[in-house]
Amino acid sequence: MATIDYVEIPASATRLQLCGAAGKDDLRPAVKVVTSLPQPESAPRGTPPTSAAVQSPTAKPGFNLQQALLSATFQLPANAPSAPRATKGTPKLLSTRDPLSIPITTANFRRFVAKVGPVFWLQDRLEEIVMWRRGWKYTTVWMCAYTFLCYYPRLALLLPVVFLLGAILGTHPALRNGGDLSASSQPAKVPPPTPSPVPEWSMDWLGNVQAIQNLMGAFSDAHDKVYPVVPHLNHTTPYTPVVFTLTVAALILAMPLVALIPLRAAFIILGLAPFVLTHPFTMYTLYPLLREWAARRLVTLHVRVMKLVDNDRLEDKHWRSELRDVELWENERWAGVSGADDGGSGDAGWNKSNLRPGERKAWTRGRDGWSGVSDDGSGDVSSNLTFSLSPGWLFVETEDWRPDLEASWIGPECADQDGWVYTDDVWMNPSSVPKDTWKQTSGMTRRRRWVRRIYFDPAAAR
């Protein structure tokens, strides 16, 4: 009697469709489901923002920089109030001392630019100390002075006197006379003239404008980084009660420990920590090693957290159903960008429009780059993507496409922190970083996997 040998079918196997009339009744027609494409976080690859040509302010005769800045910043409407910050019954503050006026703003801006130089001079000196720009001896002296002040905090009362003596000694005539004390000891017969403001369009004046420009940009960048945290503190998100509860618990736990903390040692550690963090060895040696060590672990943690968030949003009908994943592949090719020397490690030069005719499309539904398109290679995906799901299967409504940051289809060691897997010109030899040999020879490509969950609805299967 003949025996039947059973073959184990892999879970990833796909059933083949029969061709011709015999296959019309073989399988129930799949349902076409339209879904939007994944939305990458960054802008389109390889299209760096174009900046308008910068024209020199001195190119035009009679050019007024203050007026140009003010006119480009804001224009007052005809019905603009003269005191928008003032309210009835409140005393006049510094911010409401003068009414809102373009002439006053122009005059104050001109005065501010001419006289703000010492503020930025002090800022530069502090940055040189903290960032070790003047050498280790210069910064170490200030660290020792701060440590000495922490051990004898009463000396802080003498700081105003020390600063005044430093200002007097720093402007002593002996420093201008090359150390000649005899010439500097004679009293001045003519009183020194009053320092005049910095002339407009001089090097110092333009330097002040440049410092103001960079300070405004730094403040805006810091504001943009801090602002995403603000909604969690003003009861506009559901996380505010959680933050409040944790803060109160931390306060209660910290109150008994305050008396046990040595204040001198605590202030020494807090004061010297910025110097340690900004040391060149820390910034250029330790930070890269720590980032390399923690990058993959942070990616894994991020994936786990987002998975918990997605599971928390699932409805009861999703939990009672079977859940599966569908995948989509994003493909790009690198083309050199003039002026970009990042070696292909950034987004410059990467674009879906660089894909060659006849190779895989920008968005494909198979790892090989061809599954899901027509036999002739057509069927490019545009704004919407049509999926053929089995009867009864639907996309989870509370989720969207998410990139496979761990690159579970090939291994995390072959993907970068954004889930991109870099390959050579023929989509072979995967690597987590683009190689210089690929850039110098034929070219290089990359792809990443997007996933989205589907669930089975018995009502939709009928």
TrEMBL record:
Residues 357-368 have a biased composition (Basic and acidic residues). Residues 36-57, 340-375 are annotated as: Disordered. InterPro entries: Peroxin/Ferlin (IPR006614), Peroxisomal_Membrane_PEX28-32 (IPR052816), TECPR1-like_DysF (IPR010482). The chain crosses the membrane at residues 151-169, 242-261, 267-287. Residues 419-457 form the Peroxin/Ferlin domain. Keywords: Membrane, Transmembrane, Transmembrane helix. It is a multi-pass membrane protein. This is Peroxin/Ferlin domain-containing protein. It comes from Phanerochaete sordida.
